Task: structure prediction
Amino acid sequence: MKKIAILTSGGDAPGMNCAIRSVVRVASNNNIEVTGVGYGYQGLIEKDFKKIGPRDVSNIISRGGTILKTARSEDFFKKDIRKKSYENLVTECIEALVVIGGNGSYKGALSLHNDFNLPVVGIPGTIDNDINGTQRTLGFDTALNTAMDAIDKVKDTATSMDRIFLIEVMGRDSGSIAVYASLAGGAEDVIIPQEDKDVGQIIEKIKEARSKGKRSWIIIIAEGAGGADLFAHRFKKFMSDIRITVIGHTQRGGAASVFDRFLGAVMGKEAVDALLRNEKASAIGWLDDRAYSYPLQEAVKPKKEDFTYLLELIKMLT
Result:
């Protein structure tokens, strides 16, 4: 293998630049040239290609976002558009593609492979931690720490003013950030897409706690569960001292944490190694303290998340 391409697709995630740097430098050490694709799959369609070498990725590990830029491309799911994209790769003598992104990005890569037998490998770049087959995704740890910082600050004012705060964190279909942040941040309750939550029961818990002298209450809500505004409307039918904080896209930004930098480095290397092993359609995962490759077909399946143990612990520690 002499030439590969790399792109970042979908929502940006801290640590993407770390993975880009690793892929480029590990490939270079194996005498493989790397082409960077701008703006994800849209860049494949428009042939937004640029050669990137080891010096082009200097000093990017401390930068958030992605130097390759990212975008979402609905057009790419049309077979004739994918054919054009594949032909663009062929004209540049590109033999394989590394995709850093989430589930939708993985599906795009798998479609390219299935249609044209192009070797592809996916690196899980998403703050939601919702890719099947990996315990951790790139960006989750950083996003979680960003959320934690905000939750700690909100908790100060909630305690000072005896108020109930609904704090919305990101997580479209996943409750990972919400659950982990609730446990680590000492929140009293958490609402996630995977669990039906009875607002009436939460209100009764709050009333009982207040009768015993507990005045403030923090509830973490994953955006995919309906959002803080929806639940605030329900709560305000019974209580007036409700405040909302939506942490939002700050969770996507900023320099990657130590763990995400580490994850980007080892996952990037494993991605290149997978191609050198002649694997045709692989995803890179993190399991039992090591990076490993597994079938991309498995990675695009829905992740079955069981938060039972952690949710019970949150209740126990309230």
About this structure: The chain has a mean pLDDT of 94.
